Amino acid sequence: xxxxxxxxxxxxxxxxxxxxxxxxxxxxxxxxxxxxxxxxxxxxxxxxxxxxxxxxxxxxxxxxxxxxxxxxxxxxxxxxxxxxxxxxxxxxxxxxxxxxxxxxxxxxxxxxxxxxxxxxxxxxxxxxxxxxxxxxxxxxxxxxxxxxxxxxxxxxxxxxxxxxxxxxxxxxxxxxxxxxxxxxxxxxxxxxxxxxxxxxxxxxxxxxxxxxxxxxxxxxxxxxxxxxxxxxxxxxxxxxxxxxxxxxxxxxxxxxxxxxxxxxxxxxxxxxxxxxxxxxxxxxxxxxxxxxxxxxxxxxxxxxxxxxxxxxxx
Length: 314
Description:
Elements: E1 29-33, E2 36-39, H1 40-54, H2 60-86, H3 93-106, H4 111-120, H5 125-145, H6 154-166, E3 171-181, H7 188-205, H8 209-216, E4 227-232, H9 238-245, E5 251-252, E6 256-258, E7 261-272, H10 281-307, E8 310-312
Antiparallel strand pairs: 1-2, 1-8, 3-4, 3-7, 5-7, 6-7
Helix pairs in contact: 1-2, 2-5, 3-4, 3-5, 6-10
């Protein structure tokens, strides 16, 4: 079954949020997040969406392995939506429709045909719409509440440019990644198993790396299929740099454990850094700002999770 690609809107720029507690008497509850409930059908529908869109095999074994990951992703979405509500963020039906149309365009399919294709694969359209809403709401909340906290000085930009200039003649890599964060020790085994499973599916079954990254990666680059662009070797975590030394072009590394989680890195190309390849001052400023905003957003989500009432039953 040919996968279709889903965009992520995190840090760029499901139907409107329904109080899931109202469904509690009709079906099972997979998790409770503060005042919101995640139903078993929420989990099953999202799992179907992830499996079909990423090209992974739609088997009972795969669903069993993914279930807890899907529950955790839905928990994070509820936390993001709740925080967006507190920040006064409102996502309109027009915003969601625009996001849906953008995904259809990425797949080179007219919007109506894309909607029909989802239905034919057994995926409720509302499942994708809720995912789009959550991504847009969190992006807007991050821009509204966290971006003003980022203050970049000329010294910050000058230091980064000097480091780039000092790397002229050294190697840089064109990379894409799938990043699975590990927020606490209890998650390590689960995230490691998932990382190994994703690597196996990409290597052995030919699941497309960009499609898997769009659904599973938790980094800002997920929107572009995990693309990181050109990264100098000295800016990489030493463990990732070491793994890339033995990787061939067009191939990916095994999962690499670093301080914040597991990284699966695809080596697309290499080149020697030249003066011409160094970004402009404005590009460097945007690069530093994006990195800082991603760190703040990740920390904010971790704080939300730590302070929330979360009861998972899946």
